[in-house]
Amino acid sequence: MTYEKAQAVLKQHKQSHLLRFWDRLDAEARAALLRQVAALDFASIGRMQAMLQSPQAAAAATGQISPARVVELDAAARTRAVARGEEELRAGRVGVVLVAGGQGSRLGFEGPKGAYPIGPISQAVLFHFHVRKVLALGRRHGVTIPLYIMVSDANHATTRACFEAHNWFGMPPADVFFFEQGMWPALDAQGQIILDAPGHLFQSPDGHGGTLSALDASGALADMSKRRLQTIFYFQVDNPMVEVADPTFLGVHLLEQAEISLKVCAKRDPQEGLGVVVERDGRCAMVEYSELTNEQKNQRTADGELYFKYGSVAIHVFSFAFLQQEARAALPLHVAHKKVPVCQDDGKTVTPSKPNGYKFEKFIFDVLPDAKKVVNLAFDRCEEFSPVKNATGDDSPDTTRRDLSAKWARWLKAVGVAVPDDAQGYPLVPVEIDPCFALDPADLVVRLRQRPDVSQPVLLAEK
Ligand code: UTP
What we know:
Number of helices: 15
CATH architecture of the largest domain: Alpha-Beta Complex
Bound molecules: uridine 5'-triphosphate
CATH topology of the largest domain: Spore Coat Polysaccharide Biosynthesis Protein SpsA, Chain A
């Protein structure tokens, strides 16, 4: 884009202030600024401005809500689902999308969250567990399972460097596809785009809902199509307990001919910050934790269960056709009032003490009302969910390592190894199992040549 073109476009959209420091910029800074201007998505920015002008349009949807149907599998249904899911895997029709473009601000870790060391013994990083599950599952079924990883402009290079430093965790690089999500500017109360330096627009990732348009724009959807994928498993980088492309889940989704499926688990307590899947006007929708009233959060059924009992943990299966359809849909915007660094007239950057700017995001679950069929599958959270969100306390590295160790200790117990527990029921020594050593207790039976010494930390890894 030339300066003249940028001038014209910005004038048309009443954003000419973005060029006000032009005379002070060197050639490199000018080129960088023009690149940012060229990438601005004015259709979305127009929607953001409209939202600021009429906040009532942005208010949470209203209407009667009730909990959506949740599937709990008995043994026979589970067997049928596993068989269907395995058939899909063996046919090579399954791909995996991992979203890792977030900023991880609560954790406060320098670097992409996927590079956070989480192995209870090895300190292996989050990506290690995710990628090696994909690899091991592909090996088990004799197929390639491609892995599509969403990154952002801010962490693309460091994420790729992490993969290179770890030799791609054993995965062939040709089957790992990084794609960048969109970045959106922040607006001030007048709808003006905020500059955070004389030649630079403040920008942040457009939310996990950005996965859909980014899959399309990056060519990842085209790659999926070329590989003839039909069933796409989706999950987040912060949960190393996830059963990646779990055949039971794939199978239920396929047998029920769903367009999107979600794994849901019983909330830890009424205040836990998970969204709940509801029915509203005959459609499924996600209601965020912050949108439920206190009364709704605490509402109980006659048998004492929470009425909105199940929370979503962002583990999904999409049918490929639905993913393609939604890639072009305009998802609703979510706005947050935040402190955004601003470039003052003297060219200095100041971070205000109070929120001054509006940041916008899209959320993946906003596709739900568009789906003709949605399946919510209940799972046992102690087996599959313990995310790294905070630096300390609940959902922090300490609780995740503890839960990982407990899960792997249960696998050892399932194959007859007596692992001593502490008073809270957690293993006395840490246990860690590389997914390429064993994906489940059935693998352990085959792989375990000798009983491990459980008086020491137990690390079982592929040689
Ligand atoms: P979170 O909502 O927990 O955000 O993301 P976060 O950025 O990881 O952490 P905080 O809120 O700043 O502390 C849930 C998942 O969605 C991905 C994250 O990488 C994580 O896997 N995500 C989130 C994206 O890929 N892009 C985004 O813009 C936001």
